[in-house]
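Section 5.1 Outputs to date
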Amino acid sequence: MDLNGVTFMAITSRLTELDDASMSAAQREVLAEILSGPRGNLDGPFLAWIHSPELASHAQRLGAFCRYATGLELRLSELAILTTAVWWKSQAEWQIHAPIAEQAGLAPEVITALREEREPAFEQDDERLVYRVTRALYAERRVDDALYGEAVAMFGETVMVELVGVLGYYALVAMTLNVFAVRRGDDIPLPFEEPSRS
């Protein structure tokens, strides 16, 4: 894909492909904003969001904070993102973030267990707690008082608020990637079995 003179990796989706001729001024503006930020590319959900430039603009700022500026160590935010990807069976979200998680220090055995939907044998207490909070929120739609107290004692209230923000943002990412069938390329194996489409 080539937009505004910039070539992007092979990403496919069910959306109409944009090109220089078809982009609006608002789309060009948000593309420049995305490319000049810490992300530097139109990967993942931005391929879809740029079809709604105002949504893309707001989402990219929230995403930049959730990915790069919270009080969570990168290893922990990537654990939350991978747990989200598994919950939503989001192929591209997993493909993008599994290598980042490993580079950030999340053990390969933990990553494999997550993908296989097994509870990992965590060696780090903070990882175990992020996983428990994430799973509780997705499965029960709540975090009970005892678990909440443990998490606040370990991370503090600000980071707990930010963790919930990370989960909410990456759930939006996962839903976007799933609805619009965003893929990083046909040569990359899918981490999850894909349901048949009718």
